[in-house]
Amino acid sequence: MKFRTGFALLASLTLVAGGCASTGGGPGAGDPDAPQETELSRNATLFLSQAQLTGDEAEQNNRYQQALEAAQAGIAADSAHALSYLLAGQALIGLGQTAEADDFLTEAVALYDGYAQEVEAIREEAWIEAYNEGVDALGTGDEQAAQVSFERGHEIYQERPEAMIQLGTMYVSSGEHDLAIERFGQAVDVILEKAEEQDEETRAFWMENLEPVAFNRAQLLAQQGRYNEAETAYRNFLERDPDNIGAISNLAVVLVNKGDSAGAEQIYSELMSRPGMTAEDFFVTGIGLFQVESFEQAARAFGEAHRLNPQSRDAIYNYAQTLYLAEDFESLVEIEDALLTADAFNENAYRLVAQSHLQTGDQQTAVQFLERMQALPFDLSQTQLQPMAGGGARISGMVTTLSGEPGSQFRIRFTFMDPAGTDLGSTEVTGTLPAQEESVAVQGEWNGEGRVTSFRYEVLSH
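Below the sequence we write its predicted structure tokens.
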């Protein structure tokens, strides 16, 4: 399953708080219910200030530890002393123990709600520091350290989505899909609830990431078999983006998996008659129809994709394949020239055409196509196009030696096209044919501007 990319990384963020330890003269000063300073809290405050002023890491950790011990002694002396909990939370943050810090800060506000605003600032400051460390770690390629930093930030503060998005993406990569779903869901909730409160730049960044995150979460829910949740996620997504063909098609697939084939068929029927559909839209719809084994409708969708982008290898091949599965052999025979022009080195393309001629009673022509298939020097199959965020694409496939001479060289040009079928650029891949019936992987990459949605290929030499 492919997931949407486009998640951006923020540069280092500016700390929102001054970094000074809390004192009795802060929030709550003048409030008769505010917790009063004690000798232990004054000691903890002093140690925190010293920790924040020193540049020596060992000395800093030592001072944070002393601050924690003084604050814990204050709690032991008075279990309802909110200031001691506040100071203990700050010391634990300094020591990197954010999960424990969260508990102490929560208790501080529970004991004295006058600390709510200060605790919010402390949490966000700790989050920003952890997030910046994660960004720096990603910059050096240390994803494990980055994940630790993002998780530490998430433990202490959940009012910003950036770390959630990064963690969700990392959990997808590591196969921890339930955690990815949870983090993506939290990110969506925060963006929807908090975006309007942010400055223009932050709001724009959050909204840019909202739909990719929401879409990926819906895909993961479907992949995990959580179809009721996936349906809800797709429907919520479509409330914000009602013309997203991929989401509409995926919703139909979810409905099929839930047993609601009628609902899915209705969605696909509406899609096929939707005005302004592009080749890409029809292609995505065809994939959804194929997945629910509605092969006649899928063939119609892929046929429209081929009509709008006649040079796309995937459109014509999928059109031929679904015609065959729909047992529309006459139509497949009609497009054989287009198929074998676009996919001239795909053994299975010849096999589809030959079988169609057999099914229509033309055995002689079927044999001719099988002979052409057997004369192929190699088979190019399993081609996969992977568009890249920001433009460009990667292409991969397998070359299997057929009648060609093992050890001989081959050269293939892949041309990448945009949604309108316009050429964007190309790349050439070369290789050496392996032993008979053995395969070798081929892959190429084109880095350029423009959104790649389809490709064609040409064998230059073999």
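The beta strands are 378-387, 393-401, 409-417, 423-432, 439-446, 454-461.
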